[in-house]
Amino acid sequence: MTNEKLHRQNRVVLIILILLICCGLGIYQYFNYALRPVDPSANQMLSVKIPQGATDHQVGVILKKKRLVRSSFVCDYYLQTHKESGVKAGTFKLKASYSTPQIVSLLQESRESH
User: Fold this and answer.
1) Cα separation of 107 and 55, whole Å?
2) How do residues 81-113 score in pLDDT, each as one tens digit?
3) Which residues is 92 bridged to in the sheet?
4) Distance between CA atoms of 73 and 52, rounded to whole angstroms?
5) How many CB atoms lie within 10 A of CB 32?
6) Whole-angstrom Cα distance, residue 89 to residue 102?
7) Under a CB-based contact definition with an 8 Å cutoff, are residues 38 and 70 in contact?
8) How many angstroms separate the CA atoms of 71 and 2, rounded?
9) Contact indicator for 99, 69 with CB cutoff of 8 Å
10) Which of 28, 43, 82, 87 is nearest to 63 (CA)?
11) Residues of the chain above pLDDT 90, percent
């Protein structure tokens, strides 16, 4: 009886561990996907205005509305975890072929981007 109970508990723990690992890998894959360019073949420059005092969340929403990032949430998270100097206010020229890390780098670089 005790041995059978122990085996059942071990199976439950193993199933929970497998589910946690699968969820973690899924989240990791989603973030990698969301950081890639929206349209790798895009050549058109889009003008994006970042207002003075915009939060990371607001910047993510602006970029998502312009279809420059796949996910405003992932962009917001990336901005928060990769702060060098913060996003500058101003008008930026960006392409949908830029990845989220490239866009964030340009937004932190200067007022007028490439």
Assistant:
1) 13
2) 987 777 888 899 999 999 999 999 999 885 544
3) 48
4) 20
5) 10
6) 17
7) yes
8) 50
9) no
10) 87
11) 73
Q: Report CA torsion sign: 52, 58, 61, 67.
A: positive
Q: What pTM was computed for the model? A: 0.78
Query: Using CA atoms, how far apart are residues 1 and 4, in angstroms rounded to an integer?
Result: 5
Q: Look-up: residue for tokens 């109970």?
A: 5
Q: Which two tokens stand for residue 21?
A: 């690992």
Q: What token pair was written down for 109?
A: 């670089």
Total residues belonging to the chain: 114
Burial of 79 (0-12, 13-18, 19+ CB in 10 A): buried
Q: CA angle 38-51-40, nearest 5°?
A: 10
- Structure tokens belonging to residue 42: 């895009």
What's the rounded Cα separation, in Å, for the pair 51 and 65? 15
Of 109 and 55, the one with more pLDDT = 55
| Tokens linked to 45 | 């420059």
